[in-house]
Amino acid sequence: MQYDVIIVGGSYSGLSAALPLARARRRVLVVDEGVRRNRYAAHSHGFLTQDGNDPATIAQQGREQLMTYRTVEWLTGKAVGAERTDQGFRIRIEGAEPREASRIILASGVVDRLPDIPGLAERWGSRVFHCPYCHGYELDRGRIGIIATSAMSMHLALLLPDWGDTTLFLNEAFEPNTEQLAKLSARGVQLEREVVHRVDGDLDIVLRSGRSLRLDGLFVPTRVEVASPLAAMLGCEFDEGFFGRIIRTDAMKATSVKGVYACGDVARAGGSVPLAVGDGAMAGAATHQSLVFENH
Ligand SMILES: Cc1cc2nc3c(=O)[nH]c(=O)nc-3n(C[C@H](O)[C@H](O)[C@H](O)COP(=O)(O)OP(=O)(O)OC[C@H]3O[C@@H](n4cnc5c(N)ncnc54)[C@H](O)[C@@H]3O)c2cc1C
User: Fold this and answer.
1) pLDDT for 228-284, tens place per residue?
2) pTM
3) Whose CA is nearest to atom 13 of ligand 1?
4) Pocket test for ligand 1, best of 36, 76, 261, 275 (most atoms within 8 A of CB)
5) Which numeric CATH code is attached to 115-219?
6) What is the residue with the minimal CA distance to atom 41 of ligand 1?
7) Could you tell me if 80 and 92 are in contact, meaning their C-beta atoms sit under 8 angstroms apart?
């Protein structure tokens, strides 16, 4: 069966992309492995009408509403390959028959790569976060830290004092110059030059000498990697984003490959649930219009 659109990734951006297509009664297949980026967090913040709700429930409600449209199919599984065909594209799926479609939407998200510090990964999403807009308010203006991963960490370090007393752990990632030191001082950011050895307890940052600092929350600017190799297989171009490579898209969320669209974290430097939903809505409508107006 030839679908109009296959969407790879059925979380916030993929679900949102599917809706305008479903509402145009287009045949859509959503392939989803079910591994959302925010699965470590118990609450999602900053998305209108859903502020503070369980991220899994938000995604589940989205899926339930989408699946009331009869032209949409759902396949739980992992897309592992993609290639062009005469009529569009073929997607290979682990343990299932390949599926074909005229258009592809990549909504497969990103994977966070944390610095290799013992105790960090276990606290990811509960005490250790990437984004103060998502999780800063709940720290109640307590003691917060940021572990630098590069000079780019300056940006977050300068923002964080709005959420609490901030310590920047340089962790040998970079050394601020005179101008940067002045900016950090003006924002009241404390500097810690000793290397972080591990994270213990609720949130004790243990330094190489054994000295430790107790915090209420810790921020780490992760490197992100596009979660699936499909964009590369299809020949999409990438951009170097603030936190890692992302798929290049135009304002309509079209990639550099005709007929392939991308939305959500996979095609945005610094994503969030509301931004993923907005990008998805754009990708879905743009893909529908390309089905009407463009022959590939
Ligand atoms: C710890 C943490 C907490 C966060 N908290 C917040 C918050 O409070 N508020 C907020 O707005 N944002 C928050 N975020 C950011 C938010 O999670 C992302 O911006 C959002 O999930 C992006 O949605 P998405 O649809 O692009 O990708 P994702 O939600 O990551 O979904 C991608 C989907 O694609 C699937 N997929 C990937 N590869 C394949 C494949 N090959 N085949 C099939 N399926 C595939 C995945 O399994 C997944 O279901 C948080 C992130 C983290 C890490």
Assistant:
1) 899 999 999 999 988 899 999 999 999 999 999 999 999 999 899 999 999 999 999
2) 0.97
3) 272
4) 36
5) 3.50.50.60
6) 79
7) yes
